[in-house]
Amino acid sequence: MSPDFLYTIEVIINGLMTGVMYALVALGFVLIFKSSGIFNYAQGVMALFAAMTLVGFQTGQIPFSHLINAIFGTSLHHFGWHIPAVVAILMTLLVMIAFAWLVERYVLSHLVNQEPIILFMATIGLAYFMEGFGDLMWGAEIKKLDVGIPSGGSFWIEDVTATWAAEGSNFYGWYIDKLDITAAIVAIVLVVTLTLFSQYTATGRALRAVADDHQAALSVGISLRAIWVIVWSIAGFVALVAGIMWGAKSGVQFSLSLIALKALPVLMLGGFTSIPGAIVGGLIIGVGEKLFEYAIGPMIGGATENWFAYVLALVFLVFRPQGLFGEKIIERV
Amino acid sequence: MFYREAGDFKTSYGADNQTFPISQDRYAYWALMAVAVAVVPFLINDYWASAVLVPFLIYAIASIGLNLLTGYCGQVSLGTGGFMAVGAFASYKLMTAFPGMSIVLIILISGLITAAVGILFGLPSLRIKGFYLAVATLAAQFFLVWLFNKQAWFYNYSASGQINAPERTVFGVAVTGPAAEAWAKYLFCLFFVVLLAWMARNLTRGRSGRSWMAIRDMDIAAEIIGVNPLKTKLSAFAISSFYVGVAGALFFTVYLGAVEVGEAFSITQSFLVLFMIIIGGLGSILGSFLGAAFLVLMPVLLKNVMVGGFGWATDIAAHFEFMIVGGLIVAFLILEPHGLAQLWRLTKDKLRLWPFPH
Predict the structure, then answer these.
(1) Within the 56-75 window of chain A, which residues sit less than 8 Å (CB to CB) from chain B?
(2) Under an 8 A CB cutoff, do B319 and A135 touch?
(3) Contacts (Cβ under 8 Å, ≥6 apart) of B41
(4) If you average pLDDT over residues B132-145, what whole number do you get?
(5) Could you read off the pLDDT of A212-254 as tens digits, one per residue?
(6) With a CB-CB cutoff of 8 Å, which residues 210-229 of chain A face chain B?
(7) What is the biggest distance separating any 2 CA atoms in chain B, rounded to whole angstroms?
(8) CB contact under 8 A, B143 and A307
(9) Peptide bond preceding B41: is omega within 30 degrees of 0, i.e. cis?
(10) ∠ CA B118-B120-B124 to the nearest 5 degrees?
């Protein structure tokens, strides 16, 4: 096979892997949007916050140590213990559930019946608040996240594919990150679990009922507030998974919160209410932006990944305003 | 008792519909203008100009612009930073291409260029709305910043990718460039603020303002009663972008002087202006000023208290700033969705009766 063709395939495969990572973040958005009609801009910051908390627990960092040091002139940093990854993940999960409860109690319950756009802006405020809070709690420096996920290129794939091209054509096999493969598997497991959960458990049925019709769900005795706490907890869990994957890939740092911005076009493309939409949208955007950067990027200055997804989604929306899998929007006076 | 409308009689429709119907408001307004024009320029120093007054005036223009679009016409835009960049780069290209052109003209033309770009990115608003549109405007933000960052023509092929404002004068006084004095910069910005605020106020009470509000309140119903959605939405995008473009041009030429696009016009800038109009008050010109003042002053204040007063590190102050801004956004949306402008209105209503209870 010609090296050019193999390179293109490699770009597509890497695009698919990136798309899975986007879809992982987009899933959290879809869950919350489906059940409460809230477009949660804070999802990215939730992933950052979860990853920070995880690292903080793991390395035994003292919360608010910067602030305490500033006020009392002490020099506290670490408790001096190291918690195993599994325990730290469970502890972080508890924090995310507590966060979900707090958000419902102090923000959402006051904003019922508001317009979606007001709720959207409220979550932007929430994102800013969490960002400052997280930085204050754990410090803003870049942290290394290590929960034992393998990373680096897979030699096996490299060795196998290197033989596909003709001898002497300077093709050394595909570079595919083991971390990306792990992320893809995790994402598939997550989607299957979420689907099973919403199909076969009582809570899942309640979630779907609320998504269909708030009023009707209330009238058959489903507690809207409990559902919201559950949904935000699940979204917190998804954020934690996304935070672990992205954090292991590029370190826990501010830019992690910006992955929310990468997930937005994925959602617009796939439709805000559809879990399969998030996956398919993620894959399309992932492949599309890598291919575009590979084929057209060098001609127009590169770094097209920053905007390609948005422009693609924008053009697409003009022709199909509800996205690929979204429900048809019907409006009446 | 002290603030009242008793004895303030109107004898014409014009008098009844003026911007400040209560005479005390009118006097207060003229007094404020007199202080701003005749007193402040003599007291101003470099610190006040660069930390407080000039950014306040420039952000006020941007806020008014976004408020026309979001507050009056209901189209949420997160592309403000990108449109400010258009204004900045348009003024840079004009300044370097036509050295003889008046700076006032350059800034107005930059606004017009931004308006054209705004219309282009406003076109999807005819099909998509709400936060779909908010997300779509992010496309403008990222695309424009990338364009100015990567296409060398826009920054005249300079090695650093930065753009620098050359010196330009108005009536022989430098208003841009390193030699410009604080009072000249201040007065130059004030001129645009007064002009544009006056224009915005009158636009919003005329035909176009009423059609914007009709679209905002319920677009389908507005269409049925004869408001043309195409014309209305695009005019809102055009005029809003004009304001934002002027703000961007002033931001670059007068305030910063040298700009690196990714830093100065990032998405943070878009959110900042959006926060200004939420805190200040959606759909209110006064609110745009209050919000801009609040968000320009607060970081300065926090820095003075925390870094200057307590001696804490600057990053802690920055984290607190994030928390406070975020918390305030949520609090305002819950407690007072109409922002500081509404608080001011309530205060005036209370003052009319004070000190009597009824």
Answers:
(1) 66-67, 70-71
(2) yes
(3) B183, B186, B187
(4) 85
(5) 777 888 888 888 888 888 888 988 998 898 888 888 877 888 7
(6) none
(7) 69
(8) yes
(9) no
(10) 105
